[in-house]
Amino acid sequence: MMPAEPSSARPSLHADVTVTRGERRIAAAFDVVPGHPLAVIGPNGAGKSSVLAAIAGLVPLDAGEVRIGSRRVDGLPPERRRIGVVFQDYVLFPHLSVRDNVAFAARMRGGSRSAARAVAEPWLARYDLTALADRLPAELSGGQAQRVALARALAADPDVLLLDEPMSALDVEVRADMRAELATHVREFGGATVLVTHSPADAAALADSVLVLERGLVTQRGTLAELRAAPATAYVERMLAASVE
Ligand SMILES: Nc1ncnc2c1ncn2[C@@H]1O[C@H](COP(=O)(O)OP(=O)(O)OP(=O)(O)O)[C@@H](O)[C@H]1O
Predict the structure, then answer these.
(1) What is the mean pLDDT of residues 146-154?
(2) pLDDT score of 6
(3) What are phi and psi of 48, to 5 degrees?
(4) Could you give all domains of the chain from N- to C-terminal order, each with its CATH number?
(5) N or C terminus: which one in the chain shows less Cβ crowding within 10 Å?
(6) What contacts 139, CB < 8 A, 6 or more positions away?
């Protein structure tokens, strides 16, 4: 019998999405290979969150497609895409304990409460959440809530991880530590990862390359070094000059 495929052999993401939000049309096409996270950077209202929402299935496509490996997923509902999402405000279930937030995906797959909690245990341990397992989200710090959101997303064993400004709710004092911690978890995940951020420091720590989105269009893609060497727009130049934390 063939051995089961190791879970580290994760698929690539191919996104070619066009969406309309209010008056704005947003179009972006890019590929992300596993283990090489992509940061999406751009000014407020450029459409970064909309691109992630389109990939996740939370906003309908006007045109394009989303593929994960050989699977075309843009016709599937969000819960069948195998995409883990961590949004800027974490959106934990407020009435569920930390343990049951992390157990949520296993519960949705039809497991009993006790079986789902058993699945959650190693994730709670790995994310240093065991001591907090009985707390409600309102009783957590920003950094702790971020860990719960990440553990909940990864406990579902997603193929793709989408992070939308995961650090923006954190105090400046804890942000550097959390950035390093998040970088470790993203590396351990090893799958295709897209991170929306305003911060070149986040991009440097968490991503291999950067996609710049301005007014709904991709204006540049490359490593931070490539962007620095030849900024394609005034925004890219300003963004790199300002040391945004
Ligand atoms: N639910 C919505 N309905 C209508 N328009 C929306 C909606 N959400 C966002 N928009 C508009 O879509 C455009 C893109 O917004 P989006 O949140 O994707 O940008 P962003 O780059 O993530 O911005 P930010 O950095 O401020 O989070 C903006 O013009 C915004 O006003």
Answers:
(1) 90
(2) 44
(3) -60, -50
(4) 13-92+162-242 (3.40.50.300)
(5) N
(6) none
Q: Specify the amino acid at residue 120.
A: A
Say yes or no to pLDDT of 66 above 90: yes
Tell me the CA–centroid distance for residue 44 and ligand 1, in Å: 8
C-alpha–C-alpha distance, residues 166 and 169, integer Å: 7
Work out whether strand 24-32 and strand 63-68 pair parallel, antiparallel, or are unpaired.
Answer: unpaired
**Residue 147: CB within 6 Å of ligand 1?**
no
What is the distance between the alpha carbons of residues 97 and 219, in angstroms, rounded to a whole number?
A: 43
Report d(CA 93, CA 95) in Å as an integer: 6
- Interval 213-237 mean pLDDT: 96
| Ligand 1 atom with least separation from CA of 53 | 18
What are 152-201's pLDDT values in tens digits?
999 888 999 999 988 776 777 777 888 888 899 999 999 999 999 988 98
Q: 178 alpha carbon to ligand 1 midpoint, in Å?
A: 26
Instruction: Please tell me the least confidently modeled range out of 1-5, 63-67, 174-178.
Output: 1-5
- For residue 199 and ligand 1, the question of a CB distance below 6 A is answered with no
Ligand 1: which of 21, 55, 197, 239 to mutate, most ligand atoms within 8 Å of CB?
Answer: 21
Report how far ligand 1's centroid is from the alpha carbon of 211 (Å).
17
How high is the pLDDT of residue 8?
Answer: 55
